[in-house]
Design goal:
Helix content: 40-55%
Structural class: alpha/beta
CATH architecture of the largest domain: 3-Layer(aba) Sandwich
Order of helices and strands: HHHEEEHEHEHEHE
Bound molecules: zinc ion
Number of domains: 2
Distance between the termini: 54 Å
Strand content: 5-15%
Shape: elongated
CATH class of the largest domain: Alpha Beta
Length: about 200
Amino acid sequence: MDYYSNKISQLIQQLSRLPGIGTKTAQRLAFHIISMPEEQVRQLADSLTEAKANICYCRSCQTLTDQELCPICSNPKRNQGQIMVVENPRDLAAYEKTGKFEGVYHVLHGAISPMLGIGPGDIRLKELMQRLQGEVDEVIIATNSSLEGETTAMYIAKLIKPTGIKVTRIASGVPVGGDLEYIDEVTLLRALEGRTAL
Ligand code: ZN
């Protein structure tokens, strides 16, 4: 990228480090940013640094939030006895968008993958088990239907079984390997309603 000035190359390089951003897209974004009004660029830069500085994990469900407890966990109308386990905050958002789930969530931030060397200790399972010491009626496992998601579901089910708490798995119908966030709301609701005991 010698044909660009040093500062532009740096910007392109930084942008291309983001997931899903190839060199071409990074170049397009870089030139777009340079053409933006200075005030807008500053706002963008500020939101990046502020998000990084102020966002933390919810004390209860482990999703990303800017408070100690996220808005869902601190909502008294939500049923704290029903916990839906998801892989990431995007999956949480997908279920929240349906507006039909009244329980709370637990975000694992990943899935078990022996191939990638991600074990049970690398996702937020310990935090889930701690939550189960409170009054919990049902744990709904809504990990993806990928190999990793299924492995994680089986592992969690086995872990919870001895506690006597009801464990269910969302119905298949969610395409194999499909990320929950790309699935439409009707399919998500059907998967939730058709959940089966593990
Ligand atoms: Zn929370």
